[in-house]
Amino acid sequence: MRKKDGIVVKKKKLSTADKVFYTITYTVFILLALVCIYPFYYLIINTISRNDYVDLGLVMYKPIGFHLKNYVNLFKLENVANSLFISVSRTVLGTFLPLITTAVLAYLFTKEHMKHRKFLYRMTVITMYFSAGMIPIYMNIKMLGLLNNFWVYVIPGLIRVYNMVLVKTFIESLPAALEESAQIDGAGYAQRFIHIIFPLSKPILATVALFSAVSSWNSYMDTLLYITDSHLYTLQFTLYEYLNQATAIAASINSMTDMSMLDKATQISTTSVRNTMAVVTILPIICVYPFIQRYYVQGVMIGAVKG
Fold first, then answer.
1. What is the 3-state secondary structure (H, E, C) of the chain?
2. Which residue spans of the chain are classified as CATH 1.10.3720.10?
3. Over the stretch 22-45, which tens digit does the pLDDT of each residue have?
4. CATH class of the region 80-231
5. Is the entire prediction scored with pTM above 0.85?
């Protein structure tokens, strides 16, 4: 027996078959969750354990000889701190600005009386399937003056067509009466969008924001193609370069350390450099995801299928 909203609700008694089913189901899903989580856990404990034990493969289930020297030494490398700032900046702007532009465009495409709506919508969607190619895109970026410019990380991605389709489908699933009542009260398009559509679209907008954030954070090809100024390198690109030089970096860090203070437990190795770089690149997104996860499934399901 339990109370819900002041009403006594009798708890349903599970049959033996139900208990067996739920036990097997929970066991399978817990095992699958552990299989998914363990690689990240293994990576993290290897970055905070004794580096000599890590090289020998002795760290499997818990940290041994806890220390944070790997992270301290990594951020001592040239340009890493600046690259982190660039990556955070492009991720914030590359998530917020496309979210606004995508939502506005999706809202406009839901208006049947918009001039040439079908033609413009089809021309927008067709860009999902056809691309000019790398060289024409590079020439376009160059003519726009975006080479070696921070805004090359933001402006080309202001409209994400796939995300726009998701948002448009979600908006079309909202009751039309809500917007009609506001229109009768004299609200214009901007007021209806800001006060009604935008707040009600939180699930799909959170989903789109997650897509954009992950894409912006993980991207390094735009740095490779359009940036030669090391002060504009993103963290992903900087660590990608360092990852290919892990052995040399380990030797360089160790050479900067006083040999009399050098301890095998914290002595940098190729493995510790690679593990630490991997954690630095994936941990921020892992930390952000739990705050958006509650909207994620609802947003994808409602935004992807109308009806």
1. CEEECCEEECCCCCCHHHHHHHHHHHHHHHHHHHHHHHHHHHHHHHHCCCHHHHHCCCCCCCCCCCCCHHHHHHCCCCCHHHHHHHHHHHHHHHHHHHHHHHHHHHHHCCCCCCCCHHHHHHHHHHHHCCCCCHHHHHHHHHHCCCCCCHHHHCHHHCCCHHHHHHHHHHHHHCCHHHHHHHHHCCCCHHHHHHHHHHHHCHHHHHHHHHHHHHHHHHCCHHHHHHCCCHHHCCHHHHHHHHHCCHHHHHHHHHHHCCHHHCCCCCCCCHHHHHHHHHHHHHHHHHHHHHHHHHHHHHHHHHHHCCC
2. 80-231
3. 899 999 999 998 998 888 888 888
4. mainly alpha
5. no
